[in-house]
Amino acid sequence: MTRGRIVVTGMGAVTPLGPDLPTTWSALLARESGVTKLDAPWASDSPIGIASLVQHDVEEAVGRIAARRLDRSQQLALLAAREAWDDAGLGTDVHPERVAAAVGSGVGGAQTLLDQHDRLATHGASRVSPYTVPRLMPNGPAAAVSLDLGARAGAHAPTSACASGAEALWLASMLLNTYRADVVIAGGADACIAQISVAGFARIGALSPSQVPEEASRPFDRDRDGFVMGEGAAILILEREADALARRARPRAVLAGSAVTADAHHITAPSREGQIRALRQVLADAELAAGDVDHVNAHATGTPAGDLVEAGVLAEMLPHRPSVTATKSSTGHLLGAAGALEATFSVLTLATGTVPPIRNLVEPGDGIDLDLVRAVPRQQKASAVLSTSFGFGGHNALLAFTRL
To answer: Which domains, from first to last, does the chain contain?
Structure first.
């Protein structure tokens, strides 16, 4: 069984920067921030007062009746998947039994669980929604996308914390390379800005305590002090190149390689060794030499330890100093959706020749010696781009995209 090229034929996203991918990309290049003050009823008692929130009416976009059956993460996944599906020009030319969904989520329906727990405590079991379990399941976004678009070749739901979206693309490439599917709707979604999740992340020191929203997310900066929790979804349509061309699709880039490793080191602390193994594997899978990499969209969340380890790995493994950006500086950290969103940015960097800048990068931190894209977008005709994603639990997922 020969392995052909896997290409990206459609993309969609719903983010704190915009209701779709073109709006998000334009805002990213303009160095806008999606971070705002929390206005939830519980926010006054929270140690964290900011988050990166989707601003438009998601329920209205999905449909009020349908939205009642879906957790917010599932609603976001649906909107991103529909955009990607339309962008790929897909219709009745692909049989549903040859279409798979692979949509990761790091947390699942946290807000649903809290809301229904309160309803149970206040009104009793008879008032708990019958949609509670489908709404809180971590596989809910994958199931919702499969149902909405009729994907019958599988509805896969990688749950690998903040690497979930990237791992979904890795899984999609395997499904295509083994001919389990002809089209895969792949990406990630999360919407867990809820009292318990914010408090939990805050307790382990992962979140920035800043009260200035537009300045809080500062990956690689000397004054970084944690990430900003966000919500959103991003979906890519992947196909084998021959199939895409046969239906006269318009491929954007090649998913040339992917790699997934586990640290088996610590539940939250990053591992240099695990990241190095993943980087070596993705280069081998893509048949790239280290020097072929022109640009890296780094995981870089803004935590002191995480950014330092990643910067050290990139400096050691890519000594030719490719350009590096960190787009969470604008979007915040979309958890299970982050890797998929940054994959779309990597594809757009290849397609447009434009590298988005790192917002809030005033002075790189000690020990960070990279070619960081600062202040303004950089024009660069990259041929190969890496996107890195790491997650609690020791998850590492790396993607390599190349120009067609």
So the answer is: 6-246 (3.40.47.10), 257-402 (3.40.47.10)
